[in-house]
Amino acid sequence: MRVLPATLMLMLIVCSFSLAQEEAAQVQLAEPFMTEYSGEDATGDHVIGLWQFNQPDPTADASGNGHVLTLQGGEFVDEGRFGGGALRAFAGYPIVDEAHRVMTPNAPDLSPRGAFTVEMWINPDEELNADYPSAIIFDKKYIDDADYQLVLGRETSPSTRRLTMNLGFGTESVSWSSDPFSVEPGVWRHIAFVYDGDGTGSFFVDGSAAGSQTKTGYGSITPGNRPLYIGDRVGSLYHGFPGLIDQVRISGEALEFRPAGFALVSDRRVFVRMEDADPVRFAVTNRLREPLEGASVRVTLNGSPLLNQELPAIASGESAEVSVPLDTSMRPDDYTIAATVDIPGDVPFTSTERFDITIVPRETPNRMPVVMWGGAGTDEQKDWLQRIGFTHLIGLGCNYQAIWDANGPTAPGTPEQIASNRANLDDLLRRDMRVVASLSPGRWARGQEEYG
Length: 452
Hints:
Blueprint lengths: L5 H12 L22 H4 L3 E5 L18 E3 L2 E3 L8 E4 L11 E4 L11 E9 L10 E5 L8 E5 L7 E2 L1 E6 L4 E5 L3 E2 L6 E7 L4 E6 L2 E7 L13 E3 L12 E9 L8 E5 L5 E3 L7 E7 L9 E6 L2 E7 L8 E6 L8 E11 L5 E12 L10 E2 L6 H9 L4 E4 L4 H7 L8 H16 L3 E4 L3 H6 L6
Parallel strand pairs: 19-25, 26-27, 27-28
Antiparallel strand pairs: 1-17, 2-5, 3-4, 4-17, 5-16, 6-13, 6-17, 7-8, 7-16, 8-10, 9-12, 10-11, 13-14, 14-15, 18-20, 20-23, 21-22, 21-24, 24-25
């Protein structure tokens, strides 16, 4: 009988106990939206169109791609966000059903394939009040199932509205909506919508995350044949944005706007009541193009303070870790951790990101395991197993070939597989279920030429 080498025996150990961290991806730096775009930010390959409305030619496309504007009821003024020009649009229906906008003719690159970003600065007039309905800011779609349309919705509370991006996919149109945010007359706000080309749309307001949704089954938008209008809708009923618009940019990439952001480093989001849990760990990443200095972080749990501390200086693209103690004696429930970073400066910046955690009841003593000798790949399958009384199922396999090739300790799978395993462990713990690791290196070894 051939004795298996140490490398193969090690697979048992690695598969059982290793959930190695994923390799750190290169940090995507934030766009310098607080300044007027220039250089690569204005004319880089990723920029499809950039309109800054500056003299001597406010109709020019500063990207150099030739998407020249034509006034149609709007006007150019010298009251821009950065001291230069801006576009002033006006209210439409029900005040007056007339177009107030600028237009650039249809072109293939204005219908980006895959990921893209739309952004601009807006500053409403007094006419954007409780009596004024939704305002169309950016439209190449109209009623078609193609291209895109950015809408500032009706008031949800005084001076508070949501953004909606409507995207067309050929046979249907789908909407993504932001969180509510303040839209006050006379106040500039930077708004951005980022689409990853694979169903996830995210909003940012002044560099802070403002809502994100993922809709399965959607990829690139369908190109349309309409011109692009800024400040109003394609056609009647017209719903122009009453106010100033500046630095409108379309990019053919999913861009980042948060100067600093949080990532949950901890392996878990679900905990058992009264367990001795490790602190919840976050990585605070500096996405600025210069060092981050003097920043601080605040963390709350359902509004109650957990942590308030100064951050060390963080180089561009680097991260610092923050550990937050977790009291698992709280009653079983879903909780929200809100992590806020405060950045000082001439224009102070505050950004909050939220992470959901769950505390589940302790397992009842002397419970007999009921093991499903197989896995469950869908929520429906897990629901079914849970309903008929299973307490365990098979899971946590590993990539034997990768471990064999490493000839030593290594990650048991790809970063995607590891992340999926962690999410599955959390989900099953939330359901009061557990996982049995499936470790069968002998079966894999039989398929290898040396040991077959």
